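Sample entry follows:

:::
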Amino acid sequence: MINNAREAAQEHNHNYIGTEHILLGLLRTPGVAAEMLQSFGVTADRVDAKVIEIVGCGERSGPPMPPTARAPFTPRGKKALEMALREALNAGSMSADAEHILLSVTRETEGIGARILLELGVDHQTIRDQLVRPPSPRPEDPPEPSTNA
């Protein structure tokens, strides 16, 4: 997911990784977080368009950043990742999954990622409710076929 966020930043010619890039990284990483966002109509294309609208694309001056270069996280991006780890630890997990990161991006309300989600109609409570809702009841198993002859 972080590599996808880094790639998103590079594609926009940004020399940093912010919550908007983390959001794009989540959408580009198959899993529960991406599926949930897509179920709300949040797609990588829509988020990408919002990133360009809000932040724009950096001007490429000189050669592109090498793939091994490590763009720094913005303070809000770093805070979102730290909050994700706290969220995971509170849930009894030793590592932050994409779902924890998604929750933290929505909680970091001053970040561009949360702003984009709000503009697309998704807020922190909506994501939290979706993640913590009890699983849907499974239909009962069909009755065993009768062997009366």
